[in-house]
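# step 3/5: fold
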Amino acid sequence: MKFSFLILTFYSVLSYGQIVVELYTNMDTVCAGEDVIISMNVMGGTPPYVIESAGNIISTPFFVNPTTDTTIVVNVSDNFGNSGSDSVDIFVNLLPPVSFSPNITSGCQPLTVQFIESSPNNGGKVYNWNFGDNSPIDSINYLKSTYHIYKGSGVFDVCLTVTDEYGCANTQCVENLITVYESPIADFEVSYDDDVVHFENTSSANAVGSYWRYGDGDTLKVVLDSVLYYNWYYYYYYNNTIVDSALFYNNSHTYPNSGLFLVELNVMSFYGCTDTTYQLVSGNDNPNNFIHLYPNPFSENLTFEIDKCEDENIFVYMYNDIGQIVIEKEFEIPNYLNKIEIPLKHLASGIYIVEIKSNSLFLKEKVIKAE
């Protein structure tokens, strides 16, 4: 008799029972809104697991960014009805308050602005200001309330970051907060025609109003057009002001007597920004009749002759095209000497301004140094 055996092999899926979940974070105390990484270890049960938190299916690690103290709960289950859960507490430090305002929002350069930070300060806070003009940071920027001088013109954003003792930082930025208007640059040139002194206004292009004081009590106030005249808010320009573009750029004055007079030119921009410059001029005595500079252009030496000469000191100043003084000399000239030669071979070629002054004479003239 023969016996046959049927060998049956049974395969079964074994469940490893209750699931144990361990949650952990990269940090349990954070600043409001800061990212926290939640990771976990799972033991028991049978993969694959279903991971759920706050009603959502998730995978780990995952991020949360709480704004208040919170408890994160994670539930893990498998296909065999096994489950487990764990929770982790996250403590949140609120961001420090930040609120600031300037005392003014617009003005002429250089513009000094005071910034007032009005939120409570319980101590331990650091204040970092950014004034928007690429100015270097210095110690004064760390004050709660501070000031800043805007040297250039433009429109600037301002930001303040407050950091508390826990390292939590909060930033407030206000776009286009400060507007700084470009100030004009006052300048004029003087020429003589017998006893008449001519003034050419060579101020910057944004100057639209001029106020001349000729040094003998006479004045002249000029604006470029009637729109400026009727909208002017500054009394000393508006009152008795002439609307004349020709007089704005060129005007003349006759002095009642000889001598030196200090002429003042004050100019104003459309936004009310001002600048002032001064020059000495000779009244009645045209200095061109008494002081002669030659040759012009010159290459090596510059000579000046004085026809009207007294025993007095003569001061000679020479400026380059950016206003830097390159020559400063004083000469004692007796009444029998009226010619002085100044060696200038060492100067670079270009345009220079020469000023010659004494107690009784003043001359300002442009000269050219040739190659």
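# step 4/5: annotate
The domain at 290-369 is CATH 2.60.40.3080 (Immunoglobulin-like).
# step 5/5: archive (pending)
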